Input
Amino acid sequence: MTTAVRLAEDPARPRVRVVAAHRRDACTSAAAGAIWDPIYASHPDVPRWSMRTYETLCHLHGRGRPEVRLVDGVEASRHVIPAPGWARELPHFRVAAPEDLPPGFRSGWWYRAPIVDMPPYLRYLERRLRSSGGRVSAHRFETVDEALRRADIVVNCSGIGARELVPDPDMEPVRGQLVAVRNPGITRFFAEHTDELEEMTYLLPQGDVLLLGGSADKDVDDPVADPQVARGIVERCATVDPRIGRAEVLGHRVGIRPQRPVIRVEREEAGGKVIAHNYGHSGAGVSLSWGCADAVAGLLEGDLQR
Ligand SMILES: Cc1cc2nc3c(=O)[nH]c(=O)nc-3n(C[C@H](O)[C@H](O)[C@H](O)COP(=O)(O)OP(=O)(O)OC[C@H]3O[C@@H](n4cnc5c(N)ncnc54)[C@H](O)[C@@H]3O)c2cc1C
Output
């Protein structure tokens, strides 16, 4: 949806239509937490794409968009590790003192991060798309060729759907789950830093709601909440703040992360038409969204002018 907005607002003014198989609230993006954190995706341009997204989300917050909050908090590891370079460049960065860390954590760092309330944010993006003349419709494409019969330029942002659509055997589903509870008064985020997606502990305050995470079930593409996973999430988060153990559970969120060894942002030609791929963002698609949207617009610059 971000890429569609970026293209619809491009000076070349292409006519943009989003065609999506899932309802807006049923796609992976609607399930995300969604804190800006560029660690769970791989591509040499991740630093650039993530910083571009950081700036854009801060800009949206500055313009009063209620779906984007700027929150201070701690990212922490269960091992003794140095803060990554990207964290050191962020506002309010400082190394966490031992007393800032919950039991079981041995190093950490503070920074200020955007946290996005995804369901209303996706609605905002869709309104913004429509106000630039873009349209949205529901349909599942069986092949990319089917999409190419409808338009001269196809942008493939199909997430885990790329596994069948392209088809791309490098795509792996990684199911993620969150628990939404009534916020007992937590205003700082806490995010566990791990080397790769696995069972993690994180607390993301979104006003009256607190999102608790998380899980990473590899090769699972069934987007149904598992009550046992949910109980584990609440128990782990209660070790960070005991108030969570007593908080009212409001709901569960589940999504399938589109994992790929390297994100695919690439232009291809097919029978005089053009495809730009933009998928495989794993656990960091929100954090890279505006940077990748710019990258796609850059790949298509000449095509859009033609
Ligand atoms: C629990 C959880 C927590 C997360 N937390 C964070 C976070 O804190 N920060 C962060 O940056 N990221 C986070 N992520 C990752 C992030 O959600 C994803 O990387 C991102 O949403 C992927 O976006 P996407 O647009 O590629 O995929 P999607 O949101 O899945 O969108 C793909 C779209 O393509 C459509 N589609 C697919 N196949 C077809 C087809 N054949 N024909 C037509 N349409 C098709 C789908 O219907 C859908 O509309 C989290 C993910 C989960 C599951």
